[in-house]
Structures are given as structure tokens and as C-alpha cells.
Specification:
Number of strands: 5
Radius of gyration: 16 Å
Structural class: alpha/beta
Strand content: 15-25%
Strand order of the largest sheet: 2-1-3-4-5
Protein name: PTS sugar transporter subunit IIA
Subcellular location: Cytoplasm
InterPro entries: Bacterial_PTS_sugar_comp (IPR051471), PTS_EIIA_man-typ (IPR004701), PTS_EIIA_man-typ_sf (IPR036662), PTS_IIA_man (IPR033887)
Largest sheet: 5 strands, mixed
Shape: globular
Order of helices and strands: EHEHEHEHHEHH
GO cellular component, one term: membrane
Helix content: 40-55%
Pfam families: EIIA-man (PF03610)
Length: 146
């Protein structure tokens, strides 16, 4: 089963998890990490690292964030490069997550990523989708042999 780490500004992450659990029951391998104003990126990173390890059963973890480019998204992006089968999604909401709950058990992390972005509309994106728009920087001297 894919783990979920819901990480948003203020208390939105806990609110989302609470609403989802009221409708769908207890969600195993799910954690909420709130990013409060004034919190350091280091503290956020530690909290998200704990949540990552608590939710990962070996099938992968999906970081679900509220705003692309904001601190929770950036920290999740850095963490995803170090852990296989991690995806970072931004622009999430309760309705979208409710539609994706059952998919956690049957989909791989890349398939899940593509499905949630397709269902979410233009405000939902992923780190992978953003990287496809902006390929990695390559130094020109790396392209030529001397």
C-alpha cells in the first residue's frame, strides 16, 4: 500500500486527514504534517522524514502538498530524490484525496501520480510533471568531448 504524507500550511494537513478519516474510517500509513508560520525548513524536514518512515511499507510514499513551490513542496521534493518510489503532488483537496483513497492499495507510485494529476485538473501537478516541463540543467562542456 502506498503511504501518504499530507503536508500543508497551518493546520490544513491535520484538517484534511481528519475529514478523510471521518468519511472513510481510519487510514493506515497516513500522516499529517503541518507547516506553521515561523517554522524552520530544518524542523519541517525532520517532521516529514519521520512521517515518511512511518508510512512507507516498501511500496512507496506520496507527499501531498497544498501549494507548488512552497516549503512543504520543496522539502518533499528534496526527500523524494533520496527515496525510491516517492512522488510529490501539489494542489490537493479533500474531494480529490477521497477519490484516490482506494487507489493506494492497487497502484504503483508513478501510476498513482499520473491518475491524481489527471483527476485534479489544472491546479494539481506533480514534481515529475514539473520536471518534464523544465529538464535538468546541463553544462555545455558536458556535451562535447575534447
Amino acid at each position: 500500500m502506498l503511504g501518504w504524507v499530507i503536508t500543508c500550511h497551518d493546520d490544513k494537513a491535520e484538517e484534511l486527514l481528519s475529514l478523510l478519516e471521518k468519511k472513510h474510517g481510519l487510514l493506515p500509513q497516513c500522516r499529517a504534517v503541518n507547516f506553521w508560520r515561523g517554522m524552520s525548513a530544518n524542523m519541517l524536514s525532520r517532521m516529514m522524514c519521520d512521517a515518511l518512515h512511518a508510512t512507507d511499507s516498501g511500496d512507496g510514499v506520496i507527499f501531498l502538498t497544498d501549494h507548488p513551490g512552497a516549503a512543504p513542496y520543496r522539502v518533499a521534493s528534496l526527500m523524494s530524490h533520496k527515496h525510491p518510489q516517492c512522488e510529490v503532488i501539489s494542489g490537493i483537496n479533500e474531494t480529490l484525496l477521497g477519490k484516490m483513497i482506494s487507489s493506494r492499495e492497487s497502484m504503483s507510485s508513478p501510476v498513482f501520480r499520473n491518475q491524481i494529476v489527471a483527476l485534479g485538473g489544472p491546479e494539481v501537478t506533480s514534481l515529475w510533471h514539473q520536471q518534464q516541463k523544465n529538464p535538468p540543467f546541463v553544462l555545455l562542456h558536458d556535451l562535447y568531448e575534447y
